[in-house]
Design brief:
CATH class of the largest domain: Alpha Beta
Radius of gyration: 20 Å
Strand order of the largest sheet: 3-2-1-4-5-7-6
CATH topology of the largest domain: Dihydrodipicolinate Reductase, domain 2
Shape: globular
Structural class: alpha/beta
Largest sheet: 7 strands, parallel
Number of helices: 11
Distance between the termini: 35 Å
């Protein structure tokens, strides 16, 4: 059994970690931290776990984390993990960080997009970008994993096969993503997320300046083995969970059909248990991935424009956050990658 702590256990991402890990056969949850609910049972923070898990929420104390845990998930706001990860790593713990603190490989890029001074630049090189479908081998050897953002997860999985096989023009990529409101986090009190403002509406936000843009470009560039610049536009939609990404890419070389491209995708993701490539003519819906760690991908070759349209759907709190974090933990600890995660979505 691996002794596991969750820092930020009462947020949406942290709560999903608690829900998944409470049923993990190889995990003992030994340390649940929540400043908001300290001294209270986890059921006060996460009422849906009442009757399933009883554990007290505690204030964060690094000495307690070191004494009681072998691996810690950090599910705090950006800027927190960079201050605390080093001391836990030095004590021999493994760390999976769900914030953006270690995702970008260039310190200046992080500071430019997140408007924060990076206090642990020495850890950036040590961190492994935690998208198992792309970096499985490196994650298995890592002590510090930077869990991806939900938008980048959907975009990278949608486009990786095209760039790896040099089918797509790297200079002609457009990404449109739509996310449920839980992606903003449980503590967000902005007016935009109030029910009367959000319901029966849809809007783009942070057009051209969203902080996930450099993360998408970094990872797609690593796959393509060259710098990539993308046009990325996120939208907020009135649903609780889900990210639907539509990516457009120009095609280079050969006469590609939808059927041939589907085969390329199926071969690329042959060993990825949580990526489902749909049949030609079938396209993903967020409802079909609700509550699961699966990402569904469908695509269509448009010969009229010589572009391929690729669509991906995932649950932003599971495959887009906590599910991938557990998937990373499984790899880091030598467990089967699917442990505690291989279950279908919830319907209707």
């Amino acid at each position: 059994m691996v002794r596991v702590g969750i820092i930020g256990a009462s947020g949406y991402g942290g709560g999903e970690l608690v829900r998944i890990l409470a049923g993990h056969p190889e995990v003992e949850l030994t340390y649940l931290c929540s400043e908001t609910y300290k001294g209270q049972d986890i059921g006060a923070a996460l009422p849906h776990l009442r009757g399933f898990l009883a554990a007290e929420c505690e204030a964060y104390d690094p000495s307690q984390a070191v004494e009681r845990c072998a691996l810690v998930f950090m599910a705090q706001q950006n800027g927190w993990a960079m201050k605390e990860a080093g001391r836990l790593l030095d004590a021999g713990l493994k760390v999976v960080d769900l914030s953006a603190d270690f995702r970008l490989r260039v310190k200046g890029l992080y500071e430019e997009w997140y408007r924060l001074s990076h206090e642990s630049p020495e850890l950036i090189e040590q961190a492994v970008y935690g998208l198992p479908e792309i970096h499985r081998a490196q994650i298995a050897e890592a002590c510090l994993v930077a869990n991806p953002g939900c938008y980048p997860t959907g975009a990278i999985l949608a486009l990786a096969p095209l760039l790896k096989e040099k089918v797509a023009d790297p200079d002609a990529i457009v990404i449109d993503s739509k996310s449920g409101v839980s992606g903003a986090g449980r503590s967000s009190l902005k007016l935009d997320y109030h029910f009367p403002e959000l319901n029966e509406s849809m809007k783009a936000y942070n057009v051209g300046v969203h902080r996930h843009t450099p993360e998408i470009e970094q990872e797609l560039g690593r796959i393509a083995d060259r710098p990539i610049t993308v046009s990325f536009t996120p939208h907020l939609i009135p649903v609780t969970r889900g990210v639907l990404t539509t990516a457009y890419a120009g095609i280079i070389g050969g006469k590609w059909t939808t059927e041939k491209l589907v085969q390329v995708y199926r071969e690329f993701y042959e060993s990825a248990p949580f990526v489902v490539i749909l049949d030609p003519g079938d396209y993903p819906a967020t409802k079909n991935t609700f509550g699961s760690n699966f990402c569904h991908i469908g695509l269509k070759m448009d010969p009229r424009t010589n572009r391929v349209v690729v669509l991906s759907a995932l649950d932003n709190l599971v495959k887009g956050m906590a599910g991938t974090a557990v998937q990373n933990m499984n790899l880091m600890c030598g467990f089967d990658e699917k442990t505690a995660l291989y279950s279908p979505g919830v319907a209707p």
